[in-house]
Amino acid sequence: MKTSIIVVGVVLIVLVVGVAGLYITGYFTPTPTTIRIGYLTGDLHQLPLHVAIANKYFDQYGLTVERYEFINGPTLMTHFVAGELDFAYVGAPPAITGRANAMSVGNVSYLPVVVSSVNLEGSALVVNPNVITSVADLNGKKIGTPGSGTIQDIMLSIYMKDHNLTLTKYPGSIANLPLQFGTGEIDGFIGWETAPSIAVINFSASVLLTSHDMMPNHQCCVFVVSSKFLAEHPDIVTKVVNVHNSAQDFINAHPTEAKQVAANYTGLSMPVIDMAFSRIVYTKTVNVDSIRTFVSNMIELNVIKTLNASQVDSFVSGFVDTNYAITQ
Predict the structure, then answer these.
(1) How far apart are CA 317 and CA 328, in angstroms?
(2) Backbone phi, then psi, for 71, in 5-degree steps?
(3) Closest by alpha carbon to 82, among 98, 66, 68, 70?
(4) Phi, psi of 281 (to 5 degrees)
(5) In angstroms, rounded to a whole number, what is the distance separating the alpha carbons of residues 177 and 195?
(6) Comparing C-alpha atoms, which of 210, 259, 262 is closest to residue 42?
(7) 289-304: per-residue pLDDT in tens?
(8) pLDDT score of 19
(9) 49-85 pLDDT tens trace
(10) Interatomic CA distance for residues 123 and 297, integer angstroms
(11) Domain end: 214, 241, 256, which one?
């Protein structure tokens, strides 16, 4: 009897040590309960994240969220492709650039992969109505952007190309653009909401163009996951996408409550929130054609130097994971 007990004990020890060894060597990857999500400062587009937290949707799946705030999409993507984030709410062009640049240097471990849409449209070009009253008046003017490589910067470049405009782009931080406009440092700016609405309400700006005017129904922010996290934890990705989609459903079904969440985390007045909200289309459906248009234009503008026109479709196919993302 004692011999049997000893044998069983030895077997258990061997099993425990063996399994521990498999974890140490990376054969098994422990299922995470904490996920790292990046998002942009002062961005009403990324309301689904804040709604999900306010409504405790992550808690329902036993997940804890570590939030990391960034000044703009290109900055976020620098940290993302370095492996510092698992998920991110970010504009489609910065994610496209981040993926293309990482692939070009062989860094394929932490590529951004789209698993859901966040919103369509939701930006605006606001101007001083005493100086600019038409698109032609943009020529020779100083127009702010939230930074080189942001979706707003890319859209402005595309619009300039298509309409033969020559203007000076003034990259800045989204928080400062309304203030710089108010002091006359710039003649206008293009930015994500709520910045344009702040400029209209607080500094008498006029909306010259919405992003709908510039590119109707364009994909704006996307919800991305790291390719490494996706490969190792598809079950967690499913849960997080479900959380995100539930938050989208809540925003569209309960706009008044969603706006209050927005007011709570931005600290902005309800008139600003109302105006900003009216220009954003929250949807779970990814506009793949719009993403393809962005990639093509970014190649033409030499923003992406590592792809050519013949590679657009294959790039987009790898960028958007239709196992998770709803597409049109």
Answers:
(1) 13
(2) -70, -30
(3) 98
(4) -110, 105
(5) 7
(6) 262
(7) 999 999 999 999 999 9
(8) 39
(9) 999 999 999 999 999 999 999 999 999 999 999 999 9
(10) 19
(11) 214
